[in-house]
Amino acid sequence: MTEPSRLIVLAGPTAVGKGTVAADVRRRHPEVWLSVSATTRAPRPGEVNGVHYWFVSDDEFDAMVAQGELLEWAVVHKAARYGTPRGPVDAALTAGQPAMLEIDLQGARQVRENMPEAVLVFLKPPSWDELVRRLVGRGTESEAERERRLETARAELAAESEFDVTIVNHEVHAAAEQLVALMVGPVSNRSD
């Protein structure tokens, strides 16, 4: 029988590059299973249903919550809801696949409660100024949305100590390789 795998939970402030790092893992390490979250927000340009997120209606999300189908879920940026479908996570871990969730801070806290054996990884920006530059550079949010996300990011940065490991996202490939190494190697609290 295959040994169950370790679940890595990647979280950090908005615009730190979680999605970019996760995409790099997906591209360079096809053996790693990455969860696809469900969300009630509208797709951004270029996002594909079932690849980037499962885009669902509020009613569909309510049904998933009521039926216990989500490992975690939260309202993010005081707007849309996001959640991790539980079944695919359990199946990947049982099959022994290296597995990773890319979620927000609230979700990471719920995973800690529901799966205490998961390794929580905090992805940190090199500096506050760099985080602001990345958020503004995306050009996908209105000014009001950027301000809301920056307010959220300040609170999220203060939660770093709740995580098992911190990785500073100086460079995407290096951060992705550190994540993959955590899936198979020993876990020690380190910050780069």
From TrEMBL:
It is found in: Cytoplasm. It catalyses: GMP + ATP = GDP + ADP. ATP binds at G12, P13, T14, A15, V16, G17, K18, G19. Keywords: ATP-binding, Cytoplasm, Kinase, Nucleotide-binding, Transferase. Its main location: cytoplasm. PROSITE patterns: GUANYLATE_KINASE_1 (PS00856), GUANYLATE_KINASE_2 (PS50052). This is Guanylate kinase. It comes from Nocardioides alpinus.
